[in-house]
């Protein structure tokens, strides 16, 4: 037997002089295996064509549909409505990012700045010979390094972070994860001193309060806790020299 769902969606257009932040309530019939993304699509197609939210893949790969669902950052496409027993679901845009409209925020702008800040590319003085075989590394080292490339840049760990919400300049778990990825990559020839200059302060690894909501909410189950601890051990050793 289907039940009625009550969806309360935040609506506000910061570019409009007459728009004010408010919630709009929609009611619709639940269907088997329904997700919050399906709800939003039905609402926009049949009830409110003006409702803004982001999506691309609808399969938990692109990270675009991240939003606050009953106060917790989640991917709308991977969140089942059946998990909410009372059928009431409140949707808001994620904090920590520039608000665009309704449930849409600009995560791309933040991630671009983060990647530039931690210099998210391989630093190597060697001249690359594209006709030669790539430099070999041990398979387990490659697996450990490229495991960290599974981040889909959804922004959920950033929106979950109490430090980030209190201090806008904090690099966040995803920034530390990205730094760890290059620190352990044999192709990157930067020293510990170089990485210390990037994230060895209170806006970097030493600002983390270790509440670890980032790992609790990560939709890809990335090892954020262990990598933040790894970065802290490496940089503390450098700091104490």
From TrEMBL:
| Iron-sulfur as UniProt keyword | yes
Decide whether keyword Iron-sulfur is in the record. Answer: yes
Residue ranges of the 4Fe-4S ferredoxin-type domain? 142-171
For this protein, the record's InterPro entries field holds: 2Fe-2S_ferredoxin-like_sf, 2Fe-2S_ferredoxin-type, 2Fe2S_fd_BS, 4Fe4S_Fe-S-bd, Beta-grasp_dom_sf, Helical_ferredxn, SDH/FRD_Iron-Sulfur, Succ_DH/fum_Rdtase_Fe-S
Residues annotated as domain 2Fe-2S ferredoxin-type? 22-95
For this protein, what is the EC number? 1.3.5.1
The protein's required cofactor(s) are namely:
[3Fe-4S] cluster; [2Fe-2S] cluster; [4Fe-4S] cluster
Name the reaction it catalyses.
a menaquinone + succinate = a menaquinol + fumarate
Specify the domain of life of the species encoding this protein: Bacteria
Which NCBIfam families does UniProt cross-reference here? dhsB (TIGR00384), PRK13552.1 (NF010071)
Q: Which PANTHER family match?
A: FUMARATE REDUCTASE IRON-SULFUR SUBUNIT, SUCCINATE DEHYDROGENASE IRON-SULFUR PROTEIN
* Family statement drawn from the similarity comment of this UniProt entry: Belongs to the succinate dehydrogenase/fumarate reductase iron-sulfur protein family.
Q: What is this protein called?
A: Fumarate reductase iron-sulfur subunit
